[in-house]
Amino acid sequence: MGPDEEQEQQSGARPWPLLDPERGQRPRVLVAEDQPEMRALLRRALKRQGYEVVEAADGPGLVKAIIDGLLADQTQVPDLIITDVRMPGYSGLEVVARLRREGWTTPVILITAFGDAQLHRDAELLGAARVLDKPFAMEDLCATAEALVPPVR
Asked: What is the per-residue pLDDT for 7?
């Protein structure tokens, strides 16, 4: 057992994904996208891959979904977050920055129609797992999600 593993056991902290084998549920993906059609497309593709999907329509909805999950009778935090960069309220980058400041290591996939080089650099510096530029193939999104948090099959 290495020092990191020993510290995790002592503190009770667990690395992401927070999959509880006894939970017996599919990994939970929080999808934040302000375009209803795109959100529905993402939800269907991820559900077909074996994920439980929680949706948010904007930045405040994303934050609310995280807080609601933390405050639930049985904590329901996301195992993966997929968020649009430009949304009403808070941008996906702002949410990633806040999560990282709070010590969250939840993998985040950012999706954007405005993926210039600066945005990609900013996302990398904040610790986003990946940035997908729209339009992207749904297979690429699902493959990225599976690499980060494999679905239970």
From this structure: 40
Does any domain span residue 78?
A: yes
How many CB atoms neighbour CB 119 within 10 A?
19
Phi, psi (5° rounding) for residue 117? Answer: -60, -35
Of 30, 26, 101, 103, the C-alpha closest to 64 is 30
* Domain residue limits at 66: 35-148
pTM for the whole thing?
A: 0.83
CATH of the domain at 109: 3.40.50.2300
**DSSP state for residue 149 in the 8-state scheme:** S
Residue 103 lies in a domain: yes
DSSP state of 109: E
**CB distance 114 to 122 below 8 Å:** no
Contact (CB, 8 A) for 85 and 109: no
pLDDT per residue as tens digits for the range 136-146: 999 999 999 99
| C-beta of residue 131 within 8 angstroms of C-beta of residue 120 | yes
Half-sphere exposure of residue 38, counting CA atoms within 13 Å on the CB side? Answer: 20
Cα(107)–Cα(110) distance, integer angstroms? 10
DSSP 112: E
In a domain, 16, yes or no: no
